[in-house]
Amino acid sequence: MRMAQATATAFTLPAQVSAQEALVCFKAGIFGSVFRSLSYGPLRSLSQVYLPFLVHEIDITLNGKTFRRVLGMEGTSGVMDLYGFDETPFAQAIALERTRNHFPPALEERQAQSLLLDRLRRMLFRRGFFRVLDLAFHISSPAETVYIPYWVGLYGRKRAVRIRVLDAVRGQIEGAKARQTVLQGLAG
User: Fold this and answer.
1) pLDDT band at residue 22 using 50, 70 and 90 as cut-offs
2) pTM for the full model?
3) Does the pLDDT of residue 79 top 80, yes or no?
4) Secondary structure in 3-state letters for 99-112
5) Which helix (H) or strand (E) holds 12?
6) Burial level of 63, CB count in 10 A (0-12/13-18/19+)?
C-alpha cells in the first residue's frame, strides 16, 4: 500500500478539525500528556492523510421492514470500522482537493461488498440472533470513493516512532485499526 506519489484530484469530506485543534487534541490533558510523553515520547510531527472509503447504498430488509443505509468501507484493507453517513456524501458539501497525501484504494469491488455484507450480518446478529428474521441485503449502487481526512500525530524518541490518528471530520481519536491502516500505508 503506497501513498499516491503524484498530485491527484480526490473527492473529500471537508475537515471539521483544523491543524491547531488537532495539536490541542493530541496534547490534551495534563495526565494524558505526561503519560503519552513518557510512553510515546514527545509529539514530533502532525500530518494530514486521506483514507479512501468505498461508499455503498444498501437496502436492508429485517423482520419485514426495509430501510436504507449509506455506509463507507475503508478501501485500503477493509480493516477499519464502517463509516456511516446520513445520506450519500456526494450530496453533501464535498471539498475537491489536490493532495499527495492520500492512500489509493486497494480493495476490489467484489471483495469490498463481501466484507461489507459480512460486517452488516455480524452487526445485526450481535443485537440478538433470535430477533433477526427475514434478513436480506441489496446493494443498490456500485461503490464510489470518497476520501476521509485524518490527522496523524507522530510521537517518539530517536528511532522509535508511534502514531495517534484523529478523524478530522468527526473529531475523535481513532483506535488500533486506524493506526494499523495508516502505518501500513506509510510503510508502503
Assistant:
1) very high
2) 0.84
3) yes
4) ECCECCCCCCHHHH
5) strand 8-12
6) exposed
